[in-house]
């Protein structure tokens, strides 16, 4: 058995590590495009789309950071095959936003929008899962700008591309549509335990109708 096979065998025995992943000790910086410049005076987070009242809602940076905070423990699984286990994330629970801006009946998905038009689509159940968080901190430290400061979405039970950096808006949707990476060949759902990495792996019903 070669070294790579030994490493794969050892990785398969690590609790919490999905198939095809390796344990990562540090936190690599991976992103597409430039790092945005944070402008606190003009920054805002929006909720729009199929809201119950039909209106768009927004928070300034000070208003957003004053919302009730929470902390969750959750893993981070990158589709490039590294995983970081047992991270402590601090920030705002998506349920807090839904409480302030209820979705209209029939909302099934959200699109999370980030700087430069990046986006990720999520089933509403994934967005509101107990460990999903609009993170501002990791292990008590504020996120660095390279890792998404001032806020990034973290969805520990899905691959990390489902949690965009530099989040600016949440759109409520009554039907699914693909986000930035999903339009470019990534799986619509992104479950690391099923290794849902690429579009060609999708089963009927995994993605929106063409």
UniProtKB/TrEMBL annotation:
Residues 1-20 are annotated as: Disordered. Residues 33-181 form the Oxidoreductase molybdopterin-binding domain. CDD domains: arch_bact_SO_family_Moco. Gene3D superfamilies: Oxidoreductase, molybdopterin-binding domain (3.90.420.10). This is Sulfite oxidase-like oxidoreductase. The lineage of its organism: Bacteria, Bacillati, Actinomycetota, Actinomycetes, Kitasatosporales.
């Amino acid at each position: 058995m070669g070294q790579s096979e030994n490493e794969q065998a050892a990785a398969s025995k690590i609790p919490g590590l999905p198939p095809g992943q390796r344990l990562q000790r540090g936190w690599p910086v991976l992103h597409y495009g430039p790092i945005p410049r944070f402008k606190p005076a003009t920054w805002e987070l929006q909720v729009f789309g199929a809201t119950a009242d039909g209106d768009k809602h927004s928070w300034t940076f000070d208003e957003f950071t004053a919302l009730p905070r929470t902390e969750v423990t959750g893993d981070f699984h990158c589709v490039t095959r590294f995983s970081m286990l047992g991270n402590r994330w601090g920030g705002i629970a998506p349920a807090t936003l839904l409480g302030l801006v209820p979705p209209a009946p029939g909302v099934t998905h959200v699109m999370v929008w980030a700087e430069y038009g990046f986006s990720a689509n999520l089933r509403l159940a994934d967005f509101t899962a107990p460990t999903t968080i609009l993170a501002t901190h990791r292990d008590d430290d504020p996120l660095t700008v390279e890792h998404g400061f001032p806020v990034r979405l973290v969805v520990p039970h899905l691959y990390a591309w489902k949690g965009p950096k530099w989040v600016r808006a949440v759109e409520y949707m009554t039907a699914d549509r693909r986000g930035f990476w999903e339009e470019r060949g990534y799986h619509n759902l992104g479950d690391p335990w099923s290794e849902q990495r690429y579009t060609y792996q999708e089963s009927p019903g995994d993605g929106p109708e063409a």
